[in-house]
Give the backbone structure.
Amino acid sequence: MTAWLCLLLAGALEIVWAVGLKQSDGFTRLWPSLGTLTAIALSFALMAVALRTVPFGTAYAIWTGIGAAGTVILGIFMFGEPADAARLMCIGLIVTGIVGLKLVTQ
């Protein structure tokens, strides 16, 4: 598995565990809590693999960017959070930054 794919999957798992935190209700619900902890562990493990090749600053920014943008998007769809133009523009800026970092990193 390539480092970039590991990084993408690590970012996706960051979204999973962020939503899992909400679903676990403060770690008071067993299955959402276990799913959250598993997603955290897998996300960190995949991030560690990606860091073997991808520069640290780039990897961390992309990992958190994927998590941040994805979590906001799921918040809109799953929890009815606002989807106003300013929020969507900010998500677009995050995605633009992620793509830009990938394009300038070898």
Remarks:
- The CA atoms of residues 89 and 95 lie 10 Å apart.
- The chain has one domain: 3-104.
- The mean pLDDT is 97.
